[in-house]
Amino acid sequence: MNTFEHHFLIAMPSLQDPFFQRSVTYICEHNEDGAMGIVINHPLKATIGDLLQQLDIEFDPKNPITEQAVCAGGPVQADRGFVLHKAQPGYMSSMQLDDDLMITTSKDILQSLTTSDGPDKFLLALGYAGWVAGQLEQEIADNSWLVIPADSSIIFDLAHAYKWQAATKKMGIETWQLSSTAGHA
């Protein structure tokens, strides 16, 4: 089985689901049972400071991190937080995704985000995208997604508004070249 772990799914213009329209999704896990990913470019109106305050977690309100937007990571378990971050072990629920990237779901990482102990680079998302066995492969065959190897600079170093364009450009494609209709040879 070919795995799409540590790849981006780039939504094609024909994908009209409002949750995934013009999305870039990082695939965290993909196996014979299905796939799980985090949408990395759909910011919510809520900031990290808003979320920490809602969860009654002490934080430094002067830290600029508190103004970063929380992302809508996917429609599944939208009340559950996921932190994609540069590799930094030590969090209770950390899972190594590749040499450079981890995902964490534990509260201890939230408590460290505005401190010097927090990860250097991270993205906080609520919810995730999930596919049952064979579903993702079928969606790719139906031309709903382009697939490229993930690039952590797209996850962490770009504004959300530029991630979809940057991911397509990494393939050598400009977004205007993408068609909303699909064809099969």
UniProtKB/TrEMBL annotation:
Belongs to the UPF0301 (AlgH) family. The lineage of its organism: Bacteria, Pseudomonadati, Pseudomonadota, Gammaproteobacteria, Alkalimonas. InterPro entries: AlgH-like. Pfam families: DUF179. It comes from Alkalimonas cellulosilytica. This is UPF0301 protein QWY20_02845.
